[in-house]
């Protein structure tokens, strides 16, 4: 008789490989990208510089950053085929479906699709980084019956995204808050979507296929879809005075409370204090009449959840409300996460290829024992 193997359902606690891209340091509850604390990166560097760091391993000097920004700005526009094909998707489809389709289309168009050399993959990564905001913004506008706005090469990454969505760039504080969220969302080791990208890459498939699969993984509400689900929850509860009662009922029904809990952090997500600080500043200067009520409700649910379950919020909890107050439609929140995480995914794809081994675990069979096929 063979012994029963130890099962790690959900691969919880399993180290599947090594990585040089980022790590969560449990002792200090901190997250580093290429060795730098993420809060220091968010405070002192642009999202473009952080993206460069994730791909190249070092922060850019002034000249490198200028060249990187110029290359990114030149790659933003969609060609006519891309615009027309994406505009044929149903207006009602989820923007994550639009993004998944867009990445698949970019792959089909790219003659370098199957070139898995580092140089080609860095070029494809930069192209995705530049074009995905154009896709997201066009769909945000289409949902509101508006024509797309072309990217403006005079604007930085974050400013340009607001310009393409709303035709204007908001106050500096709002842009800062958005940039901080992008830096915090950019990378998080072997999370589900990154691991998906690495599994696809490990078969020696192409970068576009890996990113398409990663988008599918991120869409789910247990992963990136949670930032949208947080806003749906705030819309459902509405009144801060109802927060505790609503939570008691939801927990009694064994519902998962969106934006709370984490597979790796058990004493709080290290990114939350930074994002919560940015959200507080956003609320303080918001002219949205709903901001004070939403802020109170947000705090009331967080406190009630901690009192009852001692479970902390994750990054999606403050980010979801921040994106709402910036004016984005709820279904666009997870696509914004994609715009950022595409940097981490592609850094991992390149790393996977640098020491590739096919990812193919085992399963312990517990189905029926071998039996005779009925004859005739
Ligand atoms: C992201 O991996 C990453 O790095 C992901 C991410 C990234 O940057 O890539 O950080 C982004 O995906 C954040 C997570 C977003 N998801 C949610 O907010 C959805 C709600 N949260 C969960 O369902 C849950 O906390 C997970 C999925 C995030 C983590 O799940 P685990 O590690 O599998 O833990 P679990 O579901 O087994 O929970 C352990 C216990 C259970 O209670 P008991 O059965 O032991 O009594 O904690 C409870 C759970 O019921 N619990 C919750 C809860 N989270 C944990 N109960 C209610 N609501 C919750 N949110």
TrEMBL record:
Pathway(s) this gene product operates in, as recorded in its UniProt entry: Carbohydrate metabolism; tricarboxylic acid cycle
GO molecular function: 2-methylcitrate synthase activity; citrate synthase activity
Keywords of this entry: Acyltransferase, Transferase, Tricarboxylic acid cycle
UniProt superkingdom: Bacteria
SUPFAM superfamilies, per database record: Citrate synthase (SSF48256)
Pfam family, one: Citrate_synt
InterPro entries according to UniProt: 2-MeCitrate/Citrate_synth_II, Citrate_synth-like_lrg_a-sub, Citrate_synth-like_sm_a-sub, Citrate_synthase, Citrate_synthase_AS, Citrate_synthase_bac-typ, Citrate_synthase_sf
Reaction equations catalysed: oxaloacetate + acetyl-CoA + H2O = citrate + CoA + H(+)
PANTHER family in alphabetical order: CITRATE SYNTHASE, CITRATE SYNTHASE, PEROXISOMAL
The family this protein is said to belong to: Belongs to the citrate synthase family.
Protein name (database record): Citrate synthase
């Amino acid at each position: 008789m063979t012994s029963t193997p130890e099962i790690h359902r959900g691969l919880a606690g399993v180290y599947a490989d090594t990585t040089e891209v980022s790590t969560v340091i449990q002792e200090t509850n901190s997250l580093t990208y290429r060795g730098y604390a993420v809060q220091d990166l968010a405070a002192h560097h642009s999202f473009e510089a952080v993206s460069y760091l994730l791909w190249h391993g070092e922060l850019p000097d002034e000249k490198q950053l200028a060249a990187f920004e110029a290359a990114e700005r030149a790659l933003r526009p969609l060609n006519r085929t891309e615009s027309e094909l994406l505009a044929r998707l149903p207006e009602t489809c989820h923007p994550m479906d639009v993004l998944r389709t867009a990445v698949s289309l970019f792959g089909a168009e790219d003659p370098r699709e199957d070139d898995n050399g580092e140089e080609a993959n860095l070029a494809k990564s930069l192209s995705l980084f530049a074009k995905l905001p154009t896709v997201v913004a066009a769909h945000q506008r289409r949902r509101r019956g508006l024509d797309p706005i072309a990217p403006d090469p005079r604007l930085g990454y974050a400013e340009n995204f607001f310009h393409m969505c709303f035709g204007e760039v908001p106050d500096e504080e709002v842009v800062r808050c958005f940039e901080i969220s992008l830096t915090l969302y950019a990378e998080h080791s072997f999370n589900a979507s990154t691991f998906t990208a690495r599994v696809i890459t490990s078969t020696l498939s192409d970068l576009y296929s890996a990113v398409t699969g990663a988008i599918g993984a991120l869409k789910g509400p247990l992963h990136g879809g949670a930032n949208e689900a947080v806003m749906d929850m705030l819309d459902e509860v509405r009144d801060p005075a109802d927060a505790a009662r609503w939570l008691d009922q939801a927990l009694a029904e064994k519902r998962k409370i969106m934006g709370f809990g984490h597979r790796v952090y058990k004493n709080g997500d290290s990114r939350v204090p930074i994002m919560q600080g940015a959200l507080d500043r956003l609320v303080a200067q918001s002219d949205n009449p709903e901001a004070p009520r939403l802020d109170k409700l947000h705090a009331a649910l967080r406190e009630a959840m901690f009192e009852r379950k001692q479970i902390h919020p994750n990054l999606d909890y403050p980010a979801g409300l921040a994106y709402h107050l910036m004016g984005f439609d709820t279904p666009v929140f997870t696509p914004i996460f994609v715009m950022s995480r595409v940097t981490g995914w592609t850094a991992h794809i390149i790393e996977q290829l640098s020491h590739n081994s096919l990812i193919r675990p085992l399963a312990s069979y517990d189905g029926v024992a071998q039996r005779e096929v009925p004859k005739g």
